[in-house]
């Protein structure tokens, strides 16, 4: 393709058409139009691919709220890491929406990802049906062979902690509790085999 373009460019470089017939000039024009069309297709494909790669790099995120609860979920594809922040009181409907959002974001991550969950501002609800949605998330994390689950749990209600801990223990996942996001970051810097429960 490039040699064809080079040949046409060389032919017309001196800006004169001596010795060129009308049919030859028309054929060169058609060849150039074909080349332009091909290049536009390549550029369009490249732009789409760049957008895909940028989306993969940024990861997926979801934000949600109900009358009594709110959450923000962000997956970072490059670091293979999930950040979750929850606040307020989750009823069954809110827990369902939240768990569906978290599963959507997890789709953008690879197995053995790290998870940081800030639930320091969550409140006790007492709805035992929420356990179904917690179990749904925990089972998905177990299937992904999650590397570490780090929880910022300062001020977390005791009933919520016991329910979450019990479910995660059932599926074979360990939760590392820390007090702040800085503590979570420090824990992520440690090699997995140096971690202590």
Q: Please, could you describe this protein's structure?
A:
By secondary structure, the chain is an alpha/beta fold. It folds into two domains: 3-56; 61-193, Transcription Regulator spoIIAA, CATH 3.30.750.24. It has six helices and six strands, in the order H-H-E-E-E-H-E-H-E-H-E-H. The protein has helices spanning 2-12, 22-58, 92-106, 130-143, 158-170, 181-189; strands spanning 61-65, 69-76, 81-89, 114-123, 148-152, 175-178. Strands 1-2-3-4-5-6 form a six-stranded mixed beta sheet. Helix 4 (130-143) links the parallel strand 4 (114-123) and strand 5. Helix 3 (92-106) packs parallel to helix 4 and helix 4 crosses helix 5 (158-170). The longest helix is centred in the N-terminal third of the chain and has 37 residues, at 22-58. It is elongated, with a radius of gyration of 28 Å. The relative contact order is 0.09.
